[in-house]
Amino acid sequence: MRVLERLEQLAAIGDRIGYTPEEDRAHELAAGWFRDAGLQVEVDGAGNLIGRVPGGKREVWTGSHLDTVPGGGRFDGALGVVAGLEAVERLGLPGLAVVSFRDEERGCAGSRACTERPAAYVELHIEQGPTLLRADAPLGVVTGIVGYVRGRRTFTGTPGHAGTTPMAARDDALVEAARWLLGARDAARAIEGAVATVGQVTVEPGGTNVIPGRVVLSVDARAPDADRLDRLVAALGIEEPVRTEPSPMSEQVRAALREAVVEAGAPVLELPSGAGHDAGILAAAGVPSGMLFVRSLNGGVSHNPAELSSPEDIALALDALTGALRRLVG
Prior knowledge:
- This protein is α/β, with parallel strands linked by helices.
- The chain has 10 helices and 14 strands.
- It has helices spanning 2-11, 21-36, 78-91, 109-113, 131-135, 173-189, 226-236, 251-264, 278-284, 311-329; strands at residues 40-43, 49-52, 60-65, 96-101, 120-126, 139-145, 147-156, 195-197, 201-204, 214-223, 239-244, 247-248, 270-273, 289-294.
- Helix 3 (78-91) links the parallel strand 3 (60-65) and strand 4.
């Protein structure tokens, strides 16, 4: 399958962090594929790559991103670009376009900076979770993309000698941070669909024989809608929060995807996305957007070299994406 062959070529580049020479190489490779498909190719001011079938009264985009996290897998993002190209080439209908946004993994920089707005956008992506796998469903139609808030929590104590300061006399910032972390876990569990994660811990002064005097935790809080996100953020007390609002997917695009999934011979399962995507950025900007998830294998793992989706599921997803684009561009 050409889609899988192209994923292998992209994977051979290695990690493709946003706006690095490696991501540049990936975009150059994809631009060649776009031209080979007879598309009109352009690069906008943010470096986003767009390949168009010229003409048409309205423009419908599909695609995703080619950048990766460090040590990531080969399907995340890239599948949406190469499968999107395949679908656009199959149809060849005026008004269709495939896009690869820059630097999605570090905050959707390309889609945020994109000044063009299509009439609709459809993003094919691996689920990056186990829901479809557990439901024994190859495809999923996304209902919406969760909102998230990122920030930090800071804890201050008194540094001291690890051997001479009695336990009862300690003011240990890391212990206080640990207590907060357990409370954050409980707060997220108490709100349906919410999650909270600490992925980075900075401990100062950082000596093995020094009681921590200052600890900074990164905080990533997510929830399916604004009300639940508000409740979670209030419970966590996040400092210097940076917020991305939840993004419901367009009912028009979801309907096209549902019909196309049935046409492809798969059951329709609808689910929210717990990860942020370019589709969420375009939806927030007023573009009718939708997403089609492909089942993730290996327990649903992603951002990991073990990331995997089967050739059969990918072929089915390509058929469904093609059907949805045909409905939307008409």
